[in-house]
Structures are given as C-alpha cells and as structure tokens.
Amino acid sequence: MRRRLRRPLLALCAGAVLAGCTCGGTPAEAPPTAAPIEPPAPATPALPPNPTTLTLDAPPVTVRVDAMPTFSFTVTEAGEYQFDAVGMPADAQVTVYNEAGWSPTSDGDSGEGLDARAVGFLAPGAYTVRVFESQHGALSGTFRITRPGALPAAGALALDAEPIEIESPAAEADRASQAELALSITVAGPYVLRASAVDPATCQTALTLVRDGAVVGTGTAGGAEGGVVVARVLEPGAYAVRVRDTSNRACTHRVRVRAGE
Question: Does residue 25 sit within a domain?
C-alpha cells in the first residue's frame, strides 16, 4: 500500500513545481524575463581629418570645425590673396593673422549667402588662418586660398593734370566695389594724390595706392571738402590707384596727382 501511495505524491509534487509552487507550500520564483535586444545604431561615416597646411590654387579642402581651427600658410610673393570659407550652410567666418598677430584681412559674409571671402594684400611671410562659425557653433565646410585676377584699369592718371572722373560699382565686398586707375612715376620724389566724391552728400571716397603687389598708401574721406589726401615719396615705377565708396555704393569720384606738394 505504501508503494502505491508514493507515486501519486511524486506526481502531484512535480505538477506543483511546474505550476510555480513547492511541495512545502513556498511559492517558487518566476524565471527571469530576457531584456529586448536593441538594434545597433547606424554607424556615422567618419569625416576626413582636418588639413594642417593650405596650398595656393589647390582644389577646395573639407574642414570640420568643432573648435576654432588654425591653418598655416606661407606667402612667397607679395600680392593680393583671397580666402574663401563655405559653411554649407552655416555662417562661416575667416580671419588671417601675420607673425606679429596683426590681422591684415578678415571677413564674414562677402561670399555667396553667408559664405566668407576675405581679400587682402599680403607681404611675404608666415600667416595663420582661422575659420569659425559666427556663433562659435559646430561647422563643417570647405576652404581655399587663391589669387584674384587683376582689376582692369579704367583709365590713367596724368601728373599735374586736371582731375579725372571714375565710377566705382556697387558691391557687397570692398574689392568688388573698387575701380582702378593706372599711374606711372618716372622721377623719384614727393607726390600727393587727392580724391573726392562728386556727390559728397551721399558718397565718401576711400583710396588705395598699390605697387608691386603691396599697399604703399591709403586714405579715407577726411581731407578738404570730405576728400582723401595721400602724400608719399614715390620711386619710379608703375602704380595702381584704387577708389571706392566707403559703403560700397555706386559712386563717381574725382582723382588727381601732383608732384612736389
């Protein structure tokens, strides 16, 4: 009889364990539930490393800006250089520094849309170029250095002649709003250039004197009758006289040059 009673008890006990109980009356712990498996996040494509040097007239390079980067650039020939930073579509800014820490050129929006285009005359030497977003946020874009083409001369200044009139165009950037006159000096000595707006009530003249890719004199409205006066001792050679409105508006200017004043 005892053998016949044991078999039902074992069967009942096994059924109780499967139901979550024990034969002693204590509930059995439920088996742990497996956590759902999250799908892996898509991989972010790696961006190319930022360049540390720049090459004149090379194709645009892609730059990634998490903090303000700096690039080195060496000028071997004095002249006019153009720095373009395209933010795609962030608001790119660019500043150029020489070895003394002075900035000969900088820009924020002179390119297309919010793009930066800084143009300036640089002497031979080492320079540092900084590119950043206007609000100092993250920025990924392209950057390049080129030499802009020469401005065509709209005429020539004759020594001690009557003032010549020249029109400067309206533009977003300083260089694009300049008009240029040729000037030839045959005898070394002191010379004075004078320039003024035909309508000084609406325009103010800025004048830049250039020789061999270097600025040798500048002036902004403040001379007689609101005009510009630039007095320099000049060596024989070919010069370029550039004029523009200080607000880059379309304006007509009168320019003349005299010796020995």
Answer: no
Cis peptide before 89 (omega within 30 of 0): yes
Token pair recorded at residue 40:
């892996």
Instruction: Tell me the mean pLDDT in the region 11-38.
Output: 50
Q: Do residues 177 and 246 make contact, with C-beta atoms less than 8 angstroms apart?
A: no
Does 248 map to a domain?
yes
Residue 253 · residue 168 · CB < 8 Å:
yes
Q: Is residue 245 part of a domain?
A: yes
> Residue 34 — pLDDT band, cuts 50, 70, 90?
low
Choosing from 146, 177, 192, the residue where a domain stops is 146
pLDDT bucket at 7, cuts 50 / 70 / 90: very low
Residue 31 resides in a domain: no
Domains contained in the chain, number = 2
Structural tokens at position 74: 């060496």
Strand-pair partners of 73: 127
Q: What radius of gyration, in Å, describes the C-alpha atoms of the chain? A: 37
- This prediction has a pTM of 0.70
Q: Quick check: helix, strand or coil at residue 112? A: coil
User: The domain containing residue 215 runs over which residues?
Assistant: 153-259
Closest CA to 255 of 165, 180, 192: 165
Q: Between β-strands 70-75 and 105-107, what pairing exists: parallel, antiparallel or unpaired?
A: unpaired
Nearest-CA neighbor of 141 among 173, 72, 93?
93
Do 96 and 159 have their domain in common?
no
CA–CA dist 236, 185 (Å, integer): 5
Q: What is residue 101's predicted lDDT score, i.e. its pLDDT?
A: 85
Across residues 188-207, what is the average pLDDT? 93
CA distance 68 to 66: 7
- Domain at 250, CATH number: 2.60.120.380
